Amino acid sequence: MNYREELINKKRIVIKIGSSSLTHSETGLLDLEKLERLARVLTNLRNMGKEVILVSSGAIAVGCKKMGLKKNELSLSQKQACAAIGQAQLMMTYQKLFSEYNQPVAQILTTKLTMLNDEYKDNAKNTFLQLLKMGVIPIVNENDTVSTYEIQFGDNDRLSAIVTALVDADLLILLSDIDGLYSDDPNSNKDAKFIDLVEKLDEKYINMGKETSSSNVGTGGMSAKLVAAKIATLSGASMVIANGADVNVINDIIHGKDKGTLFLSNKDDSFDLVEEIK
Length: 278
Ligand code: GLU
Prior knowledge:
- The chain has 278 residues and is an alpha/beta fold.
- The protein contains 13 helices and ten strands.
- It has one domain (4-277): Acetylglutamate kinase-like (Carbamate kinase, 3-Layer(aba) Sandwich).
- It has an eight-stranded mixed β-sheet, with helices on both faces. It has a two-stranded antiparallel sheet with strand order 6-7.
- The structure holds glutamic acid.
């Protein structure tokens, strides 16, 4: 069995979708057709007997649109306000779309501080595990009302890797606006080579993690994705970065097809989630 085919057996899967993959680039409004397909694909994973967690950005983008504001002109507190407005709208949309398939979903908003406090972290983990046991798809975002640090420097790539480690998931799929990892920025170097497989995430690959994503909608570039890859793979999960232009790519990955860049799990027993988050 090759590495790709091993993905067929993954049971607990975290999928992260970024703002740029959720919205139309021309208008910044939600791409409802894509969200509809996402709800169907994720519910189908549940129907295949998998446990699924969705990490979704888009709160700020949706809130800004609703209020007729431009994200890059906002102060921090305006971004937080937009996140609060947009998160409710986003969840309402997800609820509606998943209910078409009778699939219950839940909202989990978390912060870095939650993960650094043992008691809070255990509570969060127990909630996730209980939801998965109940057959629910948790939909996760940062609690941007309190996590100013995350709005300014953090990103949901890292959050999704932290969630992966927290719940001992065995696969993380990061849907981005780029096909995967390249040896150099493919926008500026046409000789940049696509990397299909990363067996061990060492310096050579970390150095490739320049800001290779052209998107200015989301916050995490390729270097953020490699930080996520480090956390996820050391915690014992495999990770795939793939292009979220078509969310059916999730099916392809789960069926062992050669899509995106696969980072093999490299479980390290000395891996300490709290140390990684600090
Ligand atoms: N939490 C932010 C939002 O939902 C986005 C963070 C990110 O995309 O990395 O808008």
